[in-house]
Protein backbone atom coordinates (compact mmCIF):
# COMPACT_ATOMS: atom_id res chain seq x y z
CA UNK A 1 0.00 0.00 0.00
CA UNK A 2 1.67 3.25 -1.14
CA UNK A 3 0.71 6.79 -0.23
CA UNK A 4 -0.97 7.35 -3.61
CA UNK A 5 -3.04 4.16 -3.32
CA UNK A 6 -4.68 5.27 -0.10
CA UNK A 7 -6.11 8.32 -1.83
CA UNK A 8 -3.85 11.06 -0.50
CA UNK A 9 -4.28 14.46 -2.12
CA UNK A 10 -1.99 15.60 -4.92
CA UNK A 11 1.05 17.56 -3.84
CA UNK A 12 0.42 21.31 -3.87
CA UNK A 13 3.07 24.02 -4.09
CA UNK A 14 4.09 24.98 -0.57
CA UNK A 15 4.07 28.56 0.71
CA UNK A 16 6.24 29.42 3.71
CA UNK A 17 7.10 25.76 4.22
CA UNK A 18 10.36 23.85 3.83
CA UNK A 19 10.48 21.75 0.65
CA UNK A 20 11.54 18.72 2.67
CA UNK A 21 11.24 17.66 6.31
CA UNK A 22 13.68 15.35 8.04
CA UNK A 23 11.69 13.03 10.29
CA UNK A 24 13.58 12.02 13.44
CA UNK A 25 11.88 8.78 14.44
CA UNK A 26 11.92 8.23 18.22
CA UNK A 27 9.56 5.27 18.57
CA UNK A 28 12.20 2.73 19.56
CA UNK A 29 13.55 5.03 22.29
CA UNK A 30 10.92 7.51 23.48
CA UNK A 31 8.14 5.06 22.62
CA UNK A 32 9.50 1.95 24.23
CA UNK A 33 11.06 3.64 27.28
CA UNK A 34 7.56 4.32 28.52
CA UNK A 35 6.06 0.87 28.07
CA UNK A 36 5.06 -0.85 31.30
CA UNK A 37 6.51 -4.10 30.00
CA UNK A 38 10.02 -4.64 28.67
CA UNK A 39 9.88 -5.39 24.96
CA UNK A 40 12.24 -8.24 23.93
CA UNK A 41 15.35 -7.08 22.09
CA UNK A 42 14.42 -9.21 19.03
CA UNK A 43 11.14 -7.28 18.73
CA UNK A 44 12.96 -3.95 19.03
CA UNK A 45 15.37 -5.03 16.29
CA UNK A 46 12.54 -6.04 13.98
CA UNK A 47 10.80 -2.72 14.74
CA UNK A 48 13.92 -0.76 13.73
CA UNK A 49 14.37 -2.90 10.63
CA UNK A 50 10.78 -2.31 9.54
CA UNK A 51 11.05 1.45 10.21
CA UNK A 52 14.12 1.62 7.97
CA UNK A 53 12.23 -0.43 5.38
CA UNK A 54 9.45 2.18 5.46
CA UNK A 55 11.96 4.85 4.40
CA UNK A 56 12.79 6.53 7.71
CA UNK A 57 16.42 7.61 7.75
CA UNK A 58 16.94 8.70 11.37
CA UNK A 59 16.03 6.06 13.92
CA UNK A 60 16.75 6.93 17.53
CA UNK A 61 17.58 3.45 18.69
CA UNK A 62 17.95 3.36 22.48
CA UNK A 63 19.53 5.08 25.51
CA UNK A 64 22.73 4.48 27.44
CA UNK A 65 21.18 5.73 30.68
CA UNK A 66 21.21 4.05 34.07
CA UNK A 67 19.43 0.69 33.60
CA UNK A 68 17.65 1.11 36.95
CA UNK A 69 16.24 4.46 35.82
CA UNK A 70 14.93 3.10 32.51
CA UNK A 71 14.81 -0.72 32.67
CA UNK A 72 12.95 -0.84 29.35
CA UNK A 73 16.19 0.15 27.59
CA UNK A 74 18.63 -1.84 29.73
CA UNK A 75 19.43 -3.98 26.68
CA UNK A 76 21.13 -1.10 24.82
CA UNK A 77 24.39 -3.04 24.27
CA UNK A 78 22.56 -6.11 22.94
CA UNK A 79 20.44 -3.95 20.69
CA UNK A 80 23.42 -2.18 19.14
CA UNK A 81 25.24 -5.50 18.69
CA UNK A 82 22.26 -7.00 16.86
CA UNK A 83 21.43 -3.99 14.71
CA UNK A 84 21.16 -4.63 10.97
CA UNK A 85 22.23 -1.16 9.82
CA UNK A 86 20.56 -0.02 6.60
CA UNK A 87 22.58 2.13 4.19
CA UNK A 88 21.79 5.82 4.57
CA UNK A 89 20.14 5.35 7.97
CA UNK A 90 21.57 6.83 11.16
CA UNK A 91 20.91 5.36 14.58
CA UNK A 92 21.46 7.99 17.30
CA UNK A 93 21.27 7.03 20.98
CA UNK A 94 20.65 9.02 24.16
CA UNK A 95 23.64 9.57 26.45
CA UNK A 96 23.40 11.48 29.76
CA UNK A 97 26.92 11.42 31.15
CA UNK A 98 30.48 10.16 30.89
CA UNK A 99 29.55 6.59 31.81
CA UNK A 100 26.86 6.60 29.11
CA UNK A 101 29.33 7.94 26.55
CA UNK A 102 31.83 5.18 27.38
CA UNK A 103 29.12 2.59 26.83
CA UNK A 104 28.00 4.21 23.58
CA UNK A 105 31.56 4.40 22.23
CA UNK A 106 32.17 0.74 23.10
CA UNK A 107 28.99 -0.13 21.22
CA UNK A 108 30.28 1.70 18.12
CA UNK A 109 27.70 4.46 17.84
CA UNK A 110 28.46 7.51 15.72
CA UNK A 111 25.64 9.82 16.76
CA UNK A 112 24.45 10.66 20.27
CA UNK A 113 21.89 12.93 21.88
CA UNK A 114 22.22 14.56 25.26
CA UNK A 115 19.05 15.66 27.02
CA UNK A 116 18.83 18.69 29.29
CA UNK A 117 15.89 20.24 31.08
CA UNK A 118 14.63 23.81 30.75
CA UNK A 119 13.34 23.64 34.33
CA UNK A 120 14.81 22.99 37.76
CA UNK A 121 12.28 20.36 38.88
CA UNK A 122 12.56 18.20 35.78
CA UNK A 123 16.37 18.33 35.92
CA UNK A 124 16.12 16.88 39.40
CA UNK A 125 13.53 14.26 38.53
CA UNK A 126 14.96 13.13 35.21
CA UNK A 127 18.70 13.56 35.75
CA UNK A 128 19.14 13.62 39.53
CA UNK A 129 20.82 16.98 39.00
CA UNK A 130 20.10 20.64 39.53
CA UNK A 131 19.32 22.87 36.55
CA UNK A 132 22.78 24.46 36.79
CA UNK A 133 24.70 21.25 37.41
CA UNK A 134 23.26 19.48 34.37
CA UNK A 135 25.34 21.76 32.13
CA UNK A 136 28.48 20.68 33.97
CA UNK A 137 27.50 17.07 33.25
CA UNK A 138 26.79 17.61 29.55
CA UNK A 139 29.58 19.99 28.49
CA UNK A 140 32.43 17.45 28.79
CA UNK A 141 30.27 14.72 27.23
CA UNK A 142 29.65 16.84 24.14
CA UNK A 143 33.32 17.88 23.95
CA UNK A 144 34.62 14.30 24.20
CA UNK A 145 32.00 12.96 21.80
CA UNK A 146 32.94 15.62 19.22
CA UNK A 147 36.64 14.82 19.71
CA UNK A 148 35.82 11.16 19.00
CA UNK A 149 34.15 12.26 15.76
CA UNK A 150 30.56 11.74 16.89
CA UNK A 151 27.70 13.97 15.93
CA UNK A 152 25.77 15.32 18.91
CA UNK A 153 22.17 16.45 19.18
CA UNK A 154 20.89 18.33 22.21
CA UNK A 155 17.40 17.88 23.56
CA UNK A 156 15.81 20.47 25.78
CA UNK A 157 12.76 19.23 27.70
CA UNK A 158 9.84 21.16 29.23
CA UNK A 159 10.23 24.06 26.81
CA UNK A 160 6.61 25.18 27.07
CA UNK A 161 5.05 23.86 30.25
CA UNK A 162 6.24 21.84 33.22
CA UNK A 163 3.92 19.76 35.44
CA UNK A 164 5.48 21.17 38.63
CA UNK A 165 6.43 24.71 37.56
CA UNK A 166 3.68 25.66 35.08
CA UNK A 167 4.37 27.83 32.03
CA UNK A 168 8.09 28.05 31.26
CA UNK A 169 9.71 31.42 30.57
CA UNK A 170 10.76 31.85 26.93
CA UNK A 171 14.04 33.59 27.81
CA UNK A 172 14.99 30.77 30.17
CA UNK A 173 14.43 28.24 27.37
CA UNK A 174 16.42 30.25 24.83
CA UNK A 175 19.35 30.71 27.23
CA UNK A 176 19.46 27.00 28.10
CA UNK A 177 19.11 25.94 24.45
CA UNK A 178 21.86 28.28 23.25
CA UNK A 179 24.19 26.89 25.91
CA UNK A 180 23.72 23.40 24.48
CA UNK A 181 24.43 24.69 20.97
CA UNK A 182 27.52 26.53 22.24
CA UNK A 183 28.79 23.25 23.73
CA UNK A 184 28.92 21.89 20.17
CA UNK A 185 25.53 20.26 19.59
CA UNK A 186 24.76 20.37 15.88
CA UNK A 187 21.03 20.34 16.50
CA UNK A 188 18.70 21.40 19.30
CA UNK A 189 15.37 19.64 19.69
CA UNK A 190 12.78 21.69 21.60
CA UNK A 191 10.67 19.32 23.64
CA UNK A 192 7.06 19.75 24.68
CA UNK A 193 7.53 16.84 27.05
CA UNK A 194 3.99 16.87 28.44
CA UNK A 195 2.21 17.99 25.27
CA UNK A 196 0.65 21.22 26.56
CA UNK A 197 1.94 23.77 24.04
CA UNK A 198 -0.28 25.61 21.58
CA UNK A 199 0.67 27.22 18.28
CA UNK A 200 1.25 30.80 19.48
CA UNK A 201 3.76 29.58 22.06
CA UNK A 202 5.58 27.53 19.44
CA UNK A 203 5.87 30.45 17.04
CA UNK A 204 7.00 32.77 19.84
CA UNK A 205 9.70 30.42 21.10
CA UNK A 206 11.13 29.71 17.65
CA UNK A 207 11.15 33.40 16.79
CA UNK A 208 12.92 34.12 20.10
CA UNK A 209 15.78 31.83 18.99
CA UNK A 210 16.23 33.91 15.84
CA UNK A 211 18.35 31.46 13.85
CA UNK A 212 16.23 28.39 13.15
CA UNK A 213 18.81 26.43 11.15
CA UNK A 214 19.79 24.12 14.04
CA UNK A 215 16.33 23.71 15.55
CA UNK A 216 14.12 20.65 15.65
CA UNK A 217 10.79 20.17 17.43
CA UNK A 218 9.61 17.31 19.63
CA UNK A 219 5.93 17.37 20.48
CA UNK A 220 4.06 14.96 22.70
CA UNK A 221 0.38 14.79 21.84
CA UNK A 222 -1.30 14.83 25.27
CA UNK A 223 -3.74 17.62 24.39
CA UNK A 224 -4.02 16.79 20.67
CA UNK A 225 -1.99 19.85 19.65
CA UNK A 226 1.11 18.16 18.26
CA UNK A 227 0.14 18.35 14.60
CA UNK A 228 -0.96 22.00 14.77
CA UNK A 229 2.23 22.83 16.67
CA UNK A 230 4.27 21.07 14.02
CA UNK A 231 2.75 23.15 11.25
CA UNK A 232 3.44 26.31 13.27
CA UNK A 233 7.07 25.23 13.67
CA UNK A 234 7.44 24.49 9.96
CA UNK A 235 6.04 27.90 9.05
CA UNK A 236 8.47 29.48 11.53
CA UNK A 237 11.44 27.91 9.71
CA UNK A 238 12.05 24.50 11.35
CA UNK A 239 12.59 21.51 9.05
CA UNK A 240 13.40 18.62 11.42
CA UNK A 241 10.47 17.06 13.27
CA UNK A 242 10.56 14.28 15.88
CA UNK A 243 7.76 11.72 15.93
CA UNK A 244 7.14 8.12 16.85
CA UNK A 245 5.58 5.40 14.74
CA UNK A 246 2.03 4.76 15.86
CA UNK A 247 2.26 7.56 18.47
CA UNK A 248 4.14 5.44 21.00
CA UNK A 249 5.87 7.32 23.74
CA UNK A 250 6.14 9.36 26.88
CA UNK A 251 8.60 10.01 29.63
CA UNK A 252 8.69 7.80 32.72
CA UNK A 253 9.79 10.80 34.84
CA UNK A 254 6.89 13.06 33.79
CA UNK A 255 3.65 11.20 34.38
CA UNK A 256 1.56 13.63 32.38
CA UNK A 257 3.63 12.89 29.24
CA UNK A 258 1.77 10.67 26.80
CA UNK A 259 2.83 9.51 23.34
CA UNK A 260 4.75 11.52 20.80
CA UNK A 261 3.26 12.98 17.67
CA UNK A 262 2.56 9.88 15.56
CA UNK A 263 4.82 9.60 12.51
CA UNK A 264 1.82 8.55 10.42
CA UNK A 265 -0.08 11.72 11.41
CA UNK A 266 2.98 13.79 10.51
CA UNK A 267 3.41 12.07 7.14
CA UNK A 268 -0.26 12.62 6.30
CA UNK A 269 0.11 16.34 7.07
CA UNK A 270 3.35 16.68 5.06
CA UNK A 271 1.84 14.83 2.12
CA UNK A 272 -1.13 17.19 2.10
CA UNK A 273 1.13 20.24 2.37
CA UNK A 274 3.30 19.04 -0.53
CA UNK A 275 6.40 18.71 1.67
CA UNK A 276 8.82 15.86 0.84
CA UNK A 277 9.31 13.25 3.61
CA UNK A 278 10.57 10.05 1.98
CA UNK A 279 8.31 7.69 3.92
CA UNK A 280 6.13 4.88 2.55
CA UNK A 281 3.01 5.47 4.63
CA UNK A 282 1.52 2.05 3.92
CA UNK A 283 4.62 0.22 5.15
CA UNK A 284 4.77 2.46 8.20
CA UNK A 285 1.14 1.76 9.11
CA UNK A 286 1.78 -1.99 8.73
CA UNK A 287 4.73 -1.61 11.10
CA UNK A 288 2.70 0.25 13.71
CA UNK A 289 -0.13 -2.28 13.49
CA UNK A 290 2.42 -5.08 13.97
CA UNK A 291 3.99 -3.24 16.94
CA UNK A 292 0.57 -2.64 18.50
CA UNK A 293 0.05 -6.40 18.30
CA UNK A 294 3.37 -6.97 20.07
CA UNK A 295 2.37 -4.52 22.82
CA UNK A 296 -1.18 -5.84 23.09
CA UNK A 297 -2.95 -2.52 22.64
CA UNK A 298 -4.08 -0.40 19.69
CA UNK A 299 -2.11 2.54 18.35
CA UNK A 300 -3.47 5.94 19.46
CA UNK A 301 -2.74 7.38 15.99
CA UNK A 302 -5.84 8.51 14.10
CA UNK A 303 -4.11 7.96 10.77
CA UNK A 304 -3.01 4.42 11.69
CA UNK A 305 -6.57 3.58 12.64
CA UNK A 306 -8.03 5.17 9.52
CA UNK A 307 -5.65 3.30 7.20
CA UNK A 308 -5.19 0.01 9.04
CA UNK A 309 -8.25 -1.54 7.47
P1 LIG B 1 22.65 8.99 39.32
O1 LIG B 1 22.02 7.93 40.14
O2 LIG B 1 22.72 10.38 39.90
O3 LIG B 1 24.09 8.54 38.82
O4 LIG B 1 21.84 9.06 37.95
P2 LIG B 1 25.51 8.67 39.50
O5 LIG B 1 26.38 9.46 38.57
O6 LIG B 1 25.37 9.14 40.92
O7 LIG B 1 26.02 7.16 39.50
C1 LIG B 1 25.39 6.16 40.34
C2 LIG B 1 25.72 4.79 39.76
O8 LIG B 1 25.09 4.67 38.47
C3 LIG B 1 27.21 4.52 39.55
O9 LIG B 1 27.43 3.14 39.73
C4 LIG B 1 27.40 4.83 38.09
O10 LIG B 1 28.49 4.14 37.48
C5 LIG B 1 26.08 4.34 37.50
P3 LIG B 1 28.12 2.60 41.09
O11 LIG B 1 29.46 3.31 41.11
O12 LIG B 1 27.21 3.03 42.18
O13 LIG B 1 28.18 1.13 40.83
N1 LIG B 1 25.75 5.04 36.24
C6 LIG B 1 25.45 4.45 35.08
N2 LIG B 1 25.35 3.16 34.72
C7 LIG B 1 25.06 2.91 33.43
N3 LIG B 1 24.87 3.87 32.50
C8 LIG B 1 24.95 5.17 32.83
C9 LIG B 1 25.25 5.49 34.17
N4 LIG B 1 25.42 6.67 34.81
C10 LIG B 1 25.73 6.38 36.08
N5 LIG B 1 24.77 6.12 31.89
C11 LIG B 1 21.65 9.57 35.61
C12 LIG B 1 22.13 10.05 36.98
C13 LIG B 1 21.73 10.75 34.66
C14 LIG B 1 22.54 8.45 35.15
C15 LIG B 1 20.19 9.07 35.76
O14 LIG B 1 19.42 10.09 36.31
C16 LIG B 1 19.59 8.62 34.45
O15 LIG B 1 19.96 7.61 33.90
N6 LIG B 1 18.58 9.38 33.94
C17 LIG B 1 17.98 9.09 32.67
C18 LIG B 1 16.48 9.29 32.72
C19 LIG B 1 15.90 9.05 31.34
O16 LIG B 1 16.43 8.30 30.55
N7 LIG B 1 14.74 9.72 31.06
C20 LIG B 1 14.09 9.59 29.81
C21 LIG B 1 14.82 10.25 28.67
S1 LIG B 1 14.56 12.01 28.59
C22 LIG B 1 13.07 12.18 27.70
O17 LIG B 1 12.38 11.24 27.50
C23 LIG B 1 12.71 13.53 27.15
C24 LIG B 1 12.93 13.62 25.63
O18 LIG B 1 12.15 12.67 24.95
C25 LIG B 1 12.56 15.02 25.14
C26 LIG B 1 11.17 15.51 25.61
O19 LIG B 1 10.18 14.79 25.46
O20 LIG B 1 11.14 16.65 26.09
C27 LIG B 1 14.39 13.39 25.25
MG1 LIG C 1 10.02 12.88 24.49
TrEMBL record:
<dbReference type="GO" id="GO:0006552">
    <property type="term" value="P:L-leucine catabolic process"/>
</dbReference>
<dbReference type="InterPro" id="IPR000891">
    <property type="entry name" value="PYR_CT"/>
</dbReference>
<dbReference type="GO" id="GO:0046951">
    <property type="term" value="P:ketone body biosynthetic process"/>
</dbReference>
<dbReference type="GO" id="GO:0004419">
    <property type="term" value="F:hydroxymethylglutaryl-CoA lyase activity"/>
</dbReference>
<protein>
    <submittedName>
        <fullName>Hydroxymethylglutaryl-CoA lyase</fullName>
    </submittedName>
</protein>
<dbReference type="Pfam" id="PF00682">
    <property type="entry name" value="HMGL-like"/>
</dbReference>
<dbReference type="InterPro" id="IPR013785">
    <property type="entry name" value="Aldolase_TIM"/>
</dbReference>
<dbReference type="InterPro" id="IPR043594">
    <property type="entry name" value="HMGL"/>
</dbReference>
<dbReference type="GO" id="GO:0046872">
    <property type="term" value="F:metal ion binding"/>
</dbReference>
<keyword id="KW-0456">Lyase</keyword>
<comment type="similarity">
    <text>Belongs to the HMG-CoA lyase family.</text>
</comment>
<keyword id="KW-0479">Metal-binding</keyword>
<feature type="domain" description="Pyruvate carboxyltransferase">
    <location>
        <begin position="21"/>
        <end position="285"/>
    </location>
</feature>
